[in-house]
Description:
Layout: H1 2-25, H2 49-55, H3 58-61, E1 65-68, E2 74-78, E3 84-89, E4 93-98, E5 103-109, E6 114-119, E7 125-130, E8 133-138, E9 143-151, E10 153-159, E11 164-169, E12 173-178, E13 183-189, E14 197-200, E15 207-210, E16 215-219, E17 228-231, E18 237-242, E19 248-253, E20 257-262, E21 267-274, E22 281-284, E23 290-294, E24 297-301, E25 314-317, E26 322-327, E27 333-338, E28 341-346, H4 366-378, H5 397-409, H6 434-470, H7 481-485
Antiparallel strand pairs: 1-28, 2-3, 3-4, 4-5, 6-7, 7-8, 8-9, 10-11, 11-12, 12-13, 14-15, 15-16, 16-17, 18-19, 19-20, 20-21, 22-23, 23-24, 24-25, 26-27, 27-28
Amino acid sequence: MGKVHQRRIITETKNKLAAKISEATNVLLPENSGYIIAEPGEKTTKISQTQLSNSVDVTSAKKHFDLLLDFGPYNIDYSLNGRQLLIGGRKGHVAAMDWITKHLMCEINVMEEVYDVKWLHNENLFSVAQKKWVYMYDNQGVEVHCLKNLNNVLHQEFLPYHFLLSTASEEGFLSWLDVSMGKLVSQFNAKMGRLSLMTQNPNNALICLGHTKGVVSMWSPNLREPVAKILCHGNMITSLAINSNGMYMATSGMDRSIKIWDLRRLKGPLQDYKVRTSPRSMVFSQTGCLAVAINNVVDVYEECCTKTIQHAYLRHNIARTINNLAFCPFEDVLGAGHDGGFSSLLIPGSGEPNFDALERNPFQTKKQRKEAEVKMLLEKIPAEMITLESTVDEVDLNTLNTKLTARNSLQTVKPLKINIKVRNKIKKKTLANPSKIKEKILEEKTKEFVKALNARSKDEIDERKSTVSNSFSVLDRFQNKRNKKK
Length: 486
């Protein structure tokens, strides 16, 4: 217990030192996230999207647009670098585009129902959960794979650091597919009924599911039982969201309440809010803003996890019922998929202004994308390391010590040094080569040494067999009679 306590103290001091260093380096960051500051007597919820687009620059104003489509309701997803947009209509319409330049990459109709769409490790591949199976397409709309092991899928989540595509089906099956190898890592029945809500924890890569009994369960591909359960509501959970650092979770139920939970201690609720009706979708931004979709209204709350908020930060009305929400990474943009198409909304202060170009680069070239893909494959985390407490940045000292002791305990035998002195003997017309004589003598000596070692090892093996044969084993009753007589 003393060693464990010392390790905890060391890790705590290291975490505190890292936090101090990160706070000190925040001064060097070039950009800051800006929010709307209202004048005395005004409310930011009364500011419309047209007023925002008229008051910002031209490039930011072009990020607010609407797509009127006829194959809804639509599910949406942004790529990891926030540059590409993927939309999928329930009636079979699937399209991928560069939403900043409005360049359409591909547009297809799969001629069957589409339940969910998801980008994979880059913008070259995306998966579509169709009526029966899951299909993979490239950025030109060409079908690459048909995954018949994943059937009747309702939701998908991609784990970028593990290269795992996680799916939840209508029959209650959970699946994890390794995209890099094309191998099904794990698949089992969660025994929780129809899995209608699904999201991932970016901190430890656990899959979180919301159920009809008000319980949120967390799953790992290594166990067939939930790693943890939280009773969040007394009735059915309608939406579920986890912030970017995996610290807080927001849930909403049929009782018209939104609760904030601390995932580090699995306790709460930290905050409890009452809304007009039960939300259909919720999502966190990179800076901690919470967007809530209630029928055809989008409410955005600022810093709702750490302190109690009395009113919303921004509000926008859409003519159709909202089906899905998603914040664009590194942009102050919120995407909303609804029955009538897609809407891009401006939310100042929602995006992370300082991005790490070595991890996620919105302005990467083809060469940088290839290098980043190779780097991601080399640094892929195995699925066995998905646990409740992330141990990726720690060293397993017990296994390391056992390996070192096993390596040191091996008996190594070094061959003897042979000193050879060869005299140059001159015969009639030929001169003996001393190097060849040395090689022959060394070969003979090494052969003798190897023979002695083999004889010694055979004697040791015979002694071990004699000792084992004297001791009775449980498996001896399965041997043949001839072997017993011998």
